Amino acid sequence: MTTSVSETAKAVIRRNTEDVQGGGNWALFDELFADNFFDHTPQPGGGRDKASVLVLYKRLREAFPDFTPEVHWQRADGDVVTTYKTYHGTHQGNFLGVAGTGIKVSFETVDAMRVVDGRITEHWGVANLFSVMQQLGAIAPLSKA
């Protein structure tokens, strides 16, 4: 049985989500990301290259040592995989200028990543960072009209 490009790409992205982001497997990160990786939507203050993504992942795990992804669904269109997930974690270290609070947070993310020859080459994504900052008390909740 032949595995399709889409199914192979989905497996690569799931390994990144669960084992790298969720498990802190930095050796696997190097294996999964292409050296010419490009992030079309870097996080605030972040860069667009492979090294910058590793820095982001490590900062997330430092801020939320129990950082755990929950994949809700994945869809693939050829070599591009879109994943909708929720991240969970306890805020123990600096995150976007907010010192650790001990507060448990969760936030949604949608990512699209291209996989070529088994390696992640591009990323587009949005994360609900506004929600995180509200949960941490750094931003006041919106008033209900």
Automatic annotation (TrEMBL):
Species: Mesorhizobium escarrei
Top-level taxonomic group: Bacteria
One Pfam family matching this protein: SnoaL
PANTHER family, sorted: ESTER CYCLASE (PTHR38436:SF1), POLYKETIDE CYCLASE SNOAL-LIKE DOMAIN (PTHR38436)
Protein's name in the database: Ester cyclase
SUPFAM superfamilies: NTF2-like
InterPro entries xrefs: Cyclase_SnoaL-like, NTF2-like_dom_sf
